[in-house]
């Protein structure tokens, strides 16, 4: 087996591991998002500005995860092209 094929297999394994881990992270993030929304709906003592700040924080966290996924997918694609 040549080195390029070994690298392709390693890349495929690492991409699958990242995708699975990222999917699990997204599932946890979505669960936390639902929990935070339920908490904020029931927490009458939290001011409106505080609720808005928390909602913005959740949106920023989600956008960061999406940006990470996009960057990793682009990186894996470039490596796949290089090894092709």
Which terms would index this structure?
84 residues; mainly alpha; 2 helices; 0% strand; elongated
Radius of gyration: 19 Å
Main sheet, how many strands, which sense, barrel? Answer: none
Order of H and E elements: HH
Distinct helical segment count = 2
Q: Strand-residue fraction?
A: under 5%
Overall SS class: mainly alpha
Mean pLDDT: 93
The separation of the N and C termini measures 15 Å
Which blocks of ≥5 consecutive residues have pLDDT under 50? Answer: none
State the helicity in percent bands. over 70%
Q: Which of globular, elongated, flat, extended, rod-shaped describes the shape?
A: elongated
The beta-strand count equals: 0
